[in-house]
Amino acid sequence: MIVAFRFFYTNKNSFLAYFLDYYAKKSTLKYTINKNDDEITLFIEGSEEELLKFSDEYMNLVPNSVFLAKSSVEVVKETLKTNLQIPQTKFANITPAVIKNYISKAEILPNEYDIISEISVLKDGEFIGITSENFDELVEFCFLNLLHNQTLNLKNKNGYFILKSGFDFKYCDFVMPTSLPALPKAFIADEKSLIALASFEKPVINLKTSAIFRQNHKEAPLFFDVKAASDFFTFALFDRLSKEELFFVSVKIEKSDFLPLKISVSENNFIVINHGEFISQSEAKFLEEKEFSNFALFGLICNEFSIIEQKNVNIFFDRSLSDSIKVYDKNSAVELLKLPKFSSFEELKDEILSDEVGRTLFENFQKEFGFPTGDIKSSSFYSLFDIVSQILFGKNAKYLLDNAKDFLGTKGPRLDFLLKDTNEFDLAKFVRSGMSYKLAGVSDKIISYGYIESLVYFISDFLDDLKDDANIDNVIFTGTLFEEKDILNLMEKIISKQLNAKFSNYLGLEAR
Hints:
Layout: E1 2-9, H1 15-27, E2 30-36, E3 39-45, H2 48-57, E4 68-76, H3 96-105, E5 120-123, E6 126-129, H4 135-147, E7 152-156, E8 159-165, E9 174-177, E10 187-188, H5 191-198, E11 205-209, H6 211-216, E12 223-226, H7 232-243, E13 248-256, E14 262-265, E15 270-274, H8 281-288, E16 295-301, E17 304-307, E18 315-317, E19 324-329, E20 332-338, H9 345-352, H10 356-369, H11 381-393, H12 397-406, H13 427-439, H14 444-470, E21 474-478, H15 485-495, E22 500-503
Parallel strand pairs: 16-21, 21-22
Antiparallel strand pairs: 1-3, 1-4, 2-3, 5-6, 5-7, 7-8, 8-13, 9-13, 10-11, 11-12, 14-15, 16-17, 18-19, 19-20
Helix pairs in contact: 4-7, 9-13, 10-13, 11-12, 11-13, 12-14, 14-15
């Protein structure tokens, strides 16, 4: 009897194949592993009883992955030959087997890569690496430090990290729950987010803080980055802290060669925002060079709005300049959109005052809310959000984005995203439309959502014109704006009506 375990897996670094090979070999059954594009299949042969035992005992120990799109099991008549090389890259991340051994027997055993931990702890002026012999001693040392509100210095092969017990949102880069069941004490997470946090990769995810938590922690932001423990040592340490009802630890990245893997969770996809150690630079280059035909590639990034160059396509965009958007057709380039270059709020004010409607609006607005002064930058769409947020709310662009994510309605006001005859974006009308709604008493959340929704419709109209003129069928969106879950869902909903839309920081890294 032959059973095929099929996995649709979207990471070129197929460490899933390592675990399949590891447990198939451990079973002593006859097997092959075949890869066809994004499908990895384990063919394993034995009696019905042997195969049921293999499935129950070993397949449950294969870690789940954010790159695993779907899986299936079926009985087949024949196997395919092994055609892939088992990856030799080693990861220190905890696995179901490690957790099972620790919980059931409290044993200190390495993971399937024969690694106990890659953590080193700063103690008595030097970093001490974790071994099976000093494991318990160093857990106790770290436990006592965090329990008594002392900072803890750790390092691994990727960098240096400082840990503090509790919440320090202004200081830290992300917080870690000492157990996933503790997460609801501070954050709101749906089932898909919990699955991602518990996956082998242990990615960073941006989650909303709960209303009750914010009432008790006035400094708490509306959204913040969260990560679960990925190393066995930190898992064991956090297990001790959790039993003492210390439920969260703040983590500051002091120095790092690789930022942790960060993803966004939409209704349909896991979107890779920052690839971390799980995607090598060579793999990223491979993905960027994959051939696609007839598509547009947008980059929506929190410190720039640009359209990114892509090789081997009929139409592609160039990010060489952040203050303009060009579309290339063969050897000719047409500048479709230029961002305005205002150097100060005073200069922008003069533009708003350039006609009678603008003068009346400005006078009424200034009486109620004032108007900022000083230098500005307007070389990206994110900077435009920063400008309008300072004018309307007296705060930066993050405030606008957080308000948009927190909006519970289904439709916002349509704000002006317009081009002048010179193909320059009309910043004055962009700002003036928001000022009108602010004067009318519309809430910050509704205005913020209106700006994001209007941006999506602006892009949709932009692509609609390109589709007709340049025969574009597919669009790939990339960038940290899609860390914002509700914005990503809005993009998927609106853009997908007319085009085949994909969302990823690198091509091909969507996990469905």
